Amino acid sequence: MLNGWIDIHKDRCKGCGLCVAACPKGVIALAEDQVNAHGYHPARLEDPEGECTGCAICAVACPDVCITVYRMPKRVEADAPAVAASA
Ligand code: SF4
Ligand code: SF4
């Protein structure tokens, strides 16, 4: 279930890998097939199973403030029992 996702500012990233090490879900990797404007392999989200929780640990770990975190609001179940009103 998708709970969160991140956007990484590719051209500000210096490929230090701190966010990769910090992510408890292991869903950030350095893009070995890309080189950014400064010659670094930038970090990217690799999360095909939607495991990102939006915890923001990666954003806190990044020394260059490259990561924006998005978090889904809690889902309201359509078939949840209605709350009865008291008289
Ligand atoms: S928000 Fe949390 S789970 Fe998502 S990529 Fe960042 S550290 Fe990993
Ligand atoms: S911590 Fe920041 S600068 Fe370092 S790899 Fe991750 S996004 Fe790039």
Task: Describe the 3D structure.
The chain is α+β, with helices and mostly antiparallel strands. The protein has one domain: Alpha-Beta Plaits. The protein contains two helices and four strands; from the N terminus they run E-H-E-E-H-E. The strands form two sheets. It has a two-stranded antiparallel sheet. One iron/sulfur cluster binds at residues 8, 13-19, 43, 61-62, 64, 66-67.
Residue share in β-strands:
15-25%
Radius of gyration: 17 Å
CATH class: Alpha Beta
Shape: globular
* H/E topology pattern: EHEEHE
The total of helices stands at 2
Pairing-aware structural class of the strands and helices? alpha+beta
Give the strand order of the largest sheet, numbering strands 1, 2, ... along the chain. Answer: 1-4
Q: What is the average of the pLDDT values? A: 89
Helical amount among residues, as a percent range? Answer: 10-25%
Q: Residue ranges: pLDDT <50 for 5 or more in a row?
A: none
Instruction: Note the gap between the termini.
Output: 39 Å
Please tell me the CATH architecture by its name: 2-Layer Sandwich
Q: According to CATH, what is the topology?
A: Alpha-Beta Plaits
Number of strands: 4
Number of domains as seen in the coordinates: 1
Largest sheet: 2 strands, antiparallel
Associated small molecules = iron/sulfur cluster
